[in-house]
TrEMBL record:
Recorded name of the encoding gene: fa2h
Compartments it resides in: Endoplasmic reticulum membrane
Note on how the cofactor is bound: Binds 2 Zn(2+) ions per subunit that likely form a catalytic dimetal center.
Membrane topology: Multi-pass membrane protein
UniProt-recorded name of the protein: Fatty acid 2-hydroxylase
Organism: Gadus morhua
PANTHER family: FATTY ACID 2-HYDROXYLASE, FATTY ACID HYDROXYLASE
UniProt-annotated stretches for the region Disordered: 64-100
Amino acid sequence: CYRVRGELLKHGGRGRRSTWDSLSRPGRDQCAHTLPEFGKHSVQEECLALNALRPLFVSLKTLRERRTTQGTTDGHTQQEEREEEREEGREEEEESPFSRYSTVDLDKDLVDWAQPLAWQVGHLGERYDAWVHQPVDRPIRLFGNAFLEANTKTSWYWVPVFWLPIIFYFSWHCFVTLAQDSPQVSLTPDFSIPVHKYMFPLLFALGWFLWSFLEYSIHRFIFHMTPPGHNYYLITIHFLLHGQHHKSPYDGSRLVFPPALAAVITGGLYMALLRVIPGVLGDCVFVGALCGYVVYDMIHYYLHYGSPKRGSYLYNMKAWHVKHHFEHQRAGFGISTTFWDHPFNTVIPKERF
């Protein structure tokens, strides 16, 4: 007999009811009945416990139904019943994307988990792509140096703490400048259009829209590139940028981008944008894109650790992102929106989930 509550509490964590997305409907019904404390722990913690206990749930459900309809188990030997229950348990296991967590055999794994992984993964060569897409539920140490390692980890709240003051300042600066200067946009040498201060929300929205495309493009073409097996350095860079997130998708310290590194990249993108859209107009578009980035980072964290309301937009995005991690790593690249997946034909197929 399993101590269900004890097994869940052993992991710790907080409430995540959207773990239901990983279970079939019969599994959900039985778990709700058997686990009254379900929903008080993080997604991966619940799934690890549920995957271990699911055969028991199916067994209880099967026996209860048989007792209700027949009152006895006539016509079945105990051995036959056990075989049927194990078969049903395997079917339930296959339906859950979380069952794709890989167990780490420290003696047989391709890397030494006792050592920093950053300098090991490049030696995997052609085996790297398959290895990195076998998710595990354990922390990853990238560097042996404590300072470097610490700088690869970021608590989610540092993103708004760092970026929101900059967004507020740029927004105020853009609005005031538009109100005072009324810049002109020249369409021809003899014709120009004044840009009123009330155009700021439209320019802001344009920047946010451009960010959504950049979000999709970076995720698909950079984060999900397949580095050549012979290139040690590209494999290492890919693992540091995104591969480590797919290897350990619920490492809460690496779900958002470190602000210091993000600031360097953002500064380069800002200078490039000003070459295309100079002056205050470029600032307006930039601040909209920057706000889009912050919302994206917060949504990404929430999709992993949040508990959205059933049927809500974020609930559907959470199910979408879970599929991306555990079933369709080559599709579903949108994080804050699925908009760009449609024209680029990377929509995750509709299927039972």
